[in-house]
Amino acid sequence: MHIITTTSELAKFCQAAAAHPFVTVDTEFLRETTYWPKLCLVQMATPDEAVIVDPIDTDIDLTPMFELFANEEVVKVFHAAKQDVEIFVNLSGEAPKSLFDTQVAAAVCGFGDSISYDNMVRQITGAQVDKSSRFTNWSHRPLTDKQLHYALGDVTHLRDCYLHIVAELDKRDRWDWINDEMKALMQPENYIVLPENAWKRMKMKVNRPRDFALLKMLAEWREEKAQKQNVPRGRVLKDEALFELSQQQPTNPKAFDRLRAFSKGFGRSSTANELIKLVEVAQKLDKADLPKIPRKPNGPSPKGAIGDLLRVLLKAVSEQEGVAPRIIATSDDIDSIVLDDDADVPALKGWRANVFGEKALAIKHGKMALGATKAGIVPVKVTLEDDE
Fold this sequence. Notes:
- The chain has 15 helices and eight strands.
- The strands form two sheets. The protein has a six-stranded mixed beta sheet with strand order 1-4-3-2-5-6, with helices on both faces. Strands 7-8 form a two-stranded antiparallel sheet.
- The chain is flat, with a radius of gyration of 26 Å.
- It catalyses: Exonucleolytic cleavage that removes extra residues from the 3'-terminus of tRNA to produce 5'-mononucleotides.
């Protein structure tokens, strides 16, 4: 088992890997106590070699690896790539080029939505992956032989799975089904939360423009704090606290004692002083400068008959194509289509539009119906006769 701990060793492996058509990649990391994931291991495998890169307690420079990731001639194969790619974007500012996610690709090859790595390996190779080391402390040194064996297995089995899935994509002619997803995974901006956009991640809603203005300011303030201190957002303030602040808007230290989300005496802290200043800024905003609260467009209820019909259509189409419904369209996609013919959702773009979106709009406007046959539910084109 080759464990790389020096830059020269890493450069040698990456130079050799550049001669191969693909390299499989995985990481082990921790993020329970940090904003940014802490990289603990990188595992990589070419068709004829597998290595573990150890960045903990070493002076290794990962530049050779990032140069390999930037090489568009070599496919970088991940499974469920988002968290791994987030790490590399944070460290280098760039996502790997020519990226291939076997979880995404497996979904359009009939393996189900969001298949786990061990289930994919078992279905394709018959091998059983020992999951007992998955949640161990990967930052602790020395690592055990069991941990290292588990880590290496994450990229060695992936080689066989990748080749199998590529063959399936060729057989089913579904490369265009995954291209958009792969392109999105390679966009660095998809992994960077800009503080000014942090409010978009929050689920709870406010009803008054001034409350909304303050909520946006508080979310931006918290995001900046969390990023600068490298701590989880909840360590700065929890979502519930931000919403309570946006609605109650305390303007003096004692006012915090009346808020449920804050401990007694919090008002005397420097953080409370920062929050009071934000409240004061929000309260002084002219009415014309207050942001508009996002509203969904008016239209038929997504929970009504049209939405029900589109969900039946989705089930029929997914069964016909042999993929999980969520791969084609989500429930939110359907709600958006019911409300807006031009909704900016994946279900109305690319291959999804051909498979589902165009039929969904036709049903919405009475140009297509659903018929029950022995083979199941099928879309049926409706011929509209002119009124005499």
